[in-house]
Amino acid sequence: MSNRTYQSGAAKRKKAAKAKEDISKYLPLTSFLLVQKSKPVVSEDVFLCPTSNFVSIDSALLPNETLEIQQELEPEQEPEPEQESEPAQVPEPVQEPEPAQEPESNQIKTYPNATTKTTQETDPALWHQLSQEAQSFWISNGPSMCQNNDGSFKNSERLSCGQKRYLSKSCFRRELHNGEFVNCEWLLYSPSTGSVFCFACTLFSSKHSNFSTTGFDDWKNALKCISGHENGSEHHKNMLTYSSRQRESGQLDSVLLKQLHNKQLYWQNVLKRIVAVVKFLSSRGLPFRGNNETIGSEQNGNYLGTLELLSQFDPFLHEHMKKHGNSGKGNTSYLSANICEEFICLMGNKVLSEIISELKKAKYYSISVDSTPDLSHVDQLTFTVRYVKDLAPVERFLQFVPIHGHGAEHLETVVLNLLQENEISISDCRGQSYDNASNMAGQYSGLQKRIKDKSESALFIPCAGHSLNLVGNSAAGCCLEAIIFFDFVQCLYNFFSASTHRWQVLLSFVGKGKKIVKQLSGTRWSACADAVTCLHDSYDEIKKALEFLIKDISQSKETQNDAQNLITKITTFEIVFLTIFWNDILCHFNETSKILQKENLNLDVAVRILKSLLHFIKDLRSQFENYQEKAKILLPNTDYRDSSNRTKKRS
Ligand SMILES: [Zn+2]
Fold first, then answer.
1. Could you tell me which Pfam families the record lists for this protein (predicted)?
2. Ligand 1 centroid distance, CA of 316 (Å)
């Protein structure tokens, strides 16, 4: 015997298939987003006020709406006719006494609730090949003429478990919570076959089902199956078709359509709130889901958490979550993670199509592509486009594309596929901008060359921000003094940040509102400016903090030693000189870099700003004495460490 406690592969597959089947039964979200051409039952703006929602929807709903909503919760099940379900759970229709007479099948009939006589066939079992004319007739006149529920149901006799059963009139009625009964408008009785049909499904459904083609006659499970059919997606779809066709034919809404509209209205209002939450979270880049997706749990994530918060002030949402929250798989609540993801997907596609249409309107565009690994170590290609809108340049992120290599050929395929998928013509590409890596910028087989072969006008301009970063980094990297200096800045940060006590000492000396030592930035070199500016602005205070730590006997010998080493370095003339010197250079670099990254930057400004930076740097060559003077003011009576060594050697 196996002792395993986990599920087998087959069991898991079965479970997954069941889950998929359950999901496929839900109505697609888009079915609730149909724009209603007819006058809505309740005006739209009423629903914007959270407190009025509850009242409005309640009063907009027909008395039986509450029942319908509850039924929406029930899993859609249409048990096979031969399958016996637990009789205890299903209320059996009351057996009708054997009917005495069958209504005569006259060709011309009059109906108590209809004002017209008809020559049309009123038996739905005989509607197999309904003419256009007959279909139009039923669309305009509705189901009341062909329900056939006023006579007897003699032909509905069926044998079930050795017992005669008949269709009950109670199947045509539904009891509301308040005890009131309403007519089940869509259900039709066929006197010839003794079975029942669905009005909308018989008219419009292309699928084979008991209610649309053969007729339903499992009277033992009648109530459950009728309710199940009414809440099924196919029935809903056909009712919508009926509704729109009737609207086209200029008919006023019948009770049936009002019921349908109210149901739609209810779910639209649920979805409005869900859309608002999804929009709110996604616009702020917040994560959606938590570890536990149960309403009421503190770990249920931002999506359910925000809905819970809203429900505290929104009685409609509160009521919905109370009834439908945590209803489990197979039940419709539109609160699940699947719905949430479907919405994110729909919204993402909408935003993308909006950008694409703007781009196509502008006709000419340029592309900017770079790759970076994400948290799950998948390399993602960031695809950005730039075009002109209202006489100003706009830069839009299109999408992330996972890539499997960095070869120019692969990248070319990815870029061209993405453009093709969005029906953007490569021949309208007027510019491309990447970093300076050889696979991107390569002159002979880089991505830029390959794109240029496809579209000659796609001029390649290396990313100015990337280039500036590279120039600065390389220039500083080839100077030993600069390396030693930046190493010292990093050591200073490491020393103070390693202990909270040291950090507090530093804070007490530097005081509020002044900059504190910072770490060097590994990615954006110009951001080293922050770290150097802190050292420059708070030089004396940092020195005093180090002196305090050396004298503090409560500190360990190691700390005192480290502080001593740092103070020896910080009081050298070279460090002071370089602090002032690099502070100036980096501030200019940083400002230039920020301008180069601006969305509305154009080539002219980029060239001018780079020329200005070059001019400034060149000018520094003649400023040596000035910097020396400044350093001497900050640290008087000190000279270069190296010069004293050299003097000794020479003497
Ligand atoms: Zn139906």
1. DUF4371
2. 29
